[in-house]
Amino acid sequence: MQAVLIVDDHEGFRLSAKRLLETEGYDVVGQASDGAEALAMARCLAPEVIVLDVHLPDTDGFTLAAELVELGARARVVLVSSHDASDFGPLVDQSAAVGFISKSELSGAALARLVDVRNEPE
């Protein structure tokens, strides 16, 4: 069971994602509503996966993904948004995240495809 941190400024999405992922075998260890809270929680909770919204009130997911890597977080970061990946051009591929899932397509299976152990950071 992989430990997951959900980072999104919309409480409704965080709660829905938590229920969905826990039903599908993930352990949601924390929820953060902004980048500062996410960094603090990543430090103390050491999640294996971070589901990270692209749009946050104090930063964006691309910047925060890079900060998490610089922090030394071993978590695999998966960006999420209500927009399609194509709306962000090359930013998703150039980011420190392992991939992108639109919020409407978030599922345990979609997450597993991106965070499979073969994609584990070195």
Account of the protein in words:
- This protein has a five-stranded parallel beta sheet, sandwiched between helices.
- The protein has a single domain, classed as 3-Layer(aba) Sandwich (Rossmann fold), CATH 3.40.50.
- The chain has 122 residues and is an alpha/beta fold.
- Helix 1 (11-23) links the parallel strand 1 and strand 2 (27-32).
- It contains five helices and five strands, in the order βαβαβαβαβα.
- Helix 2 runs parallel beside helix 3.
Strand content: 15-25%
Number of strands: 5
Walk across the major sheet and give the strand order. Answer: 2-1-3-4-5
CATH topology: Rossmann fold
Give the overall average pLDDT: 91
SSE succession: EHEHEHEHEH
Largest sheet: number of strands, sense, barrel closure: 5 strands, parallel
CATH superfamily: Response regulator
| CATH class division | Alpha Beta
Radius of gyration: 13 Å
What is shown here, in short?
This protein is α/β, with parallel strands linked by helices and 122 residues long. The chain is 39% helix and 21% strand.
Which SSEs are present, and which pair or pack?
Blueprint: E1 3-7, H1 11-23, E2 27-32, H2 35-45, E3 49-53, H3 61-71, E4 76-81, H4 91-94, E5 99-102, H5 108-115
Parallel strand pairs: 1-2, 1-3, 3-4, 4-5
Helix pairs in contact: 2-3
What labels would you give this structure?
disordered C terminus; Rossmann fold; 5-stranded parallel sheet; single chain; 122 residues; alpha/beta
